[in-house]
Structures are given as structure tokens and as C-alpha cells.
Amino acid sequence: MGALKGVLAIVGVAMILVGGLWALQGLDIVRWPASSFMLGDTTWTRNGVVLAVVGIFLVWFARKR
Hints:
It is a single chain. The protein is mainly alpha-helical. It has one domain (1-63). The protein is 72% helix and 0% strand. The longest helix is centred in the first third of the chain and has 25 residues, at 2-26. Keywords: Membrane, Transmembrane, Transmembrane helix. The chain crosses the membrane at residues 7-24, 44-62.
């Protein structure tokens, strides 16, 4: 069970990072890559926030006893 929780924590952190990037691209704060279709699109802001929240839940679940 410990290995599974470790994998869940790693996946959760990756989801938080990717979700944050998507949200910042959707808000047009991060303009990388410069020709991305995600820039300034609020759909990606919503998707990023949802992904980050799921990632936070996975990390919380992995850290719980």
C-alpha cells in the first residue's frame, strides 16, 4: 500500500503543476509557448483549476494515514 500512496503523491504533484500551467495560460499570464491555442481561453483556466484540485485531493489522500 505504501508504494501505491507514493505513486498517487507523484501523480498528484504532476497534476497540480500541469493544472497550474493550464490555468495561467488560460488567464493569459504565462505566454508559453507563444503560439499556443490555450492562451487567453477561459476554458483552459477552468480545466486547469479542476485538474489542480484533483491533484491536491490525490496528494492529501496519499499523505493521510
